[in-house]
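Task card 7
Instruction: Convert sequence to structure tokens.
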Amino acid sequence: MWKLHLKAPASVVADCLRLFVNRTAYTLQSSRPHPGSGRHYYYRPTNKKTGQGLSLTPDTIRRHLEGEITIGLYSINLATQCSKWVAIDADYEDALADLLKLSFYLRQDGVESALEKSHRGGHLWIFLAEPLLARDCRIYVCGLALRLGIPVKGGKQLARLIAGKAIPPQLAQREPQAEPEMRRHTGGSEFRILDHINTKLRTVGHNNITRCPSCAEEGHDRSGDNLSISIEDPHKYICWAGCTRDMTRAAVGCPRLVQHV
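Output:
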């Protein structure tokens, strides 16, 4: 059987970098499925010699567009806390009707959006003319009951749209609680991820797998197998969907505290 291979033009690769890439870190889909769930997972690719995470390159984007690999991109730049785009994901009954309503209200504010259909619903995208604070974008989106978005012309326009607004309480995520002062300064009980997991554990090989708390906050990991915890050393754990250890800790109410010198 012949396999059709389409070459991604350099202009398309450049457009993808310009529109979607907020930081050079990225995740890579596994070539083989997880032995327990049969699902593919994502992980941070690293340099085999140095152990450092690989940075995204135009060639990586090209290989993704040509179907050679599948990558995942981060929506927020850690240094600036800004994003180039907003995306609203809806995968329930009548989701497309709700996304069309959101698109209409966005247009009333002068914001154009792009609707993408999926097999269970759709996505609404907003591509920003310039990177904007993710927090401000979320305030605006939640204010309209959005779940995905597209182009805002600039920071002044966004400031006008969110003036006097805040994230509605019913849509706000649970704020992580800081560790007690005694534990913070005296090195009391160390953090153990198993103390904060209340979902069922399943054993696969040398690891226990369960639902990732960080993924759960976003309504993901419905199969409950993204988080892998070493049986031999429970201090070692990883989310195969790409959540960092800090994200996992924050999701269970025990954020890692930064020590100021």
